[in-house]
């Protein structure tokens, strides 16, 4: 029923007061409880007016849109939290030209992450490089004269180590190290650069995990590395020192250590030493050359790795205990005294909060690369060993 103020003139005063009071109560109730209605008094008093109809036409869709956007935002954040591996890193092209614009890693900042089982990614190798990972892992199987890639014989990919990794790496390095012009003087030869434009001296570690028959895989790998070797792209041991190059090749799994150690004057493939089984003389210091007397040293090994659950143990109360932290520190200290870089695999992956906590503790304690399946999550971390993380341990 429509109410108009002129109607009050034809009724007694006490009835007019009651009528106005009742009408105000109705208006208060409508204003308080009507979420979709306009709060203007005129729109409430005259719901059939043009203004009221206009407000309803605008306000209801607006609130509905805000509600839908809110639901979608919450759903997307829940998806990222629960299933981070299903979202690949997206790089947007930069409009600013640069001398490094033709690099596939232009604008990428290298981070100490290790792309675990990299061949499972939508774009093997390149996804890890675009995320800034300085280490990638590939499982291999010998097959005739080729080295196949896959976690098991039943899941090998169509590509090979050559086609999926070695050929793309060689092409990128050739492009990055191409002289500015054909007339470039030989005396002004360029210094060797790697894969990352933001840090051209950063070496990429290619961890080759030999799943079986390491003795058969070894000669195939050594032969396929010849183009890198001839162009000086490989980190190598020259008989006295380790000379770092754009690519550092490390073998793991069933890799034949005895074949790697045969050549005592030159090596460009290094071993992944067992982190939880290192032995070294107690008197060795970080800068002591006696570390070369150990079975695993920089002349033959690059990484020292271990399964986190085996070496450290499972986490109770979602944190590292004092005993576990002491074990972690002793293993990191032992590897660093020998000149090796530390890596743990099998770290917690879910829930994300626990995963990030373990990552940050490892970085704070000096672990050199973080094993990860979630490239997107890795790029969101601050990998500097800040002291503010100490309260977590």
Question: Care to describe what's here?
Answer:
The chain is α/β, with parallel strands linked by helices and 393 residues long. The protein has two domains: 5-82; 109-178 and 190-392, TIM Barrel (Alpha-Beta Barrel). Helices cover 35% and strands 15% of the residues. The protein has helices at residues 13-33, 41-45, 50-82, 126-131, 161-176, 214-224, 226-230, 257-260, 308-311, 322-337, 352-364, 375-379; strands spanning 111-115, 133-143, 146-149, 204-210, 236-237, 242-243, 247-253, 269-274, 301-307, 341-345, 369-372. An eight-stranded parallel β-barrel has the order 1-2-4-7-8-9-10-11. Strand 1 (111-115), helix 4 (126-131) and strand 2 form a beta-alpha-beta unit. The termini are far apart. Residues 85-101 and 387-393 have low confidence and may be disordered.
